[in-house]
Amino acid sequence: MEERSHVSLAVSSIVRICCDKHGDGDWSGRVYTRYRETPIHFQNTGQLLDRLDRFYNWLGYPQESVVNRSFEKAPGRERNGEMAGVKRSQIRQKGEKVIVVNEEAMKKHQGDRATFVVRIQYRQNASWQGQVTWAEKDKTVPFRSALELLKLIDSTAVESEDSWDGGDE
Asked: Alpha-carbon distance 137 to 71, whole Å?
């Protein structure tokens, strides 16, 4: 199922967030990327943001405009070019990223409560900017920060489309 095409990093960096449970004002679920056949699980939105940030650091796209500096190895950051949860056998050569899931297979994954397709275009001002699509409603809106992305996702817990109106493509 390996796909070795000339897919741009921008297209291959799109993730599918499947939100399965919402409780105590927080989501849990799965994230799917084109670089692994198994999902990345998250228990809360803090974990979701951390795991997405680690994925984009591993991918190297979009590049961070602000990089924290430290004399110590930052916990949870990429190790020797590895993405957390990706076995070394899934990485062909150091630095080479291989797409193993095609676009059609990505579309099959659905959250029990909601599904979002996230396109991070920039990581500037220590946050993320991009577009998010609420798959069940086929509504797309831009966001200017990770907090705004979380607010959009959270608004779907009560089926509120107010935040999603006016940004359709």
From this structure: 46
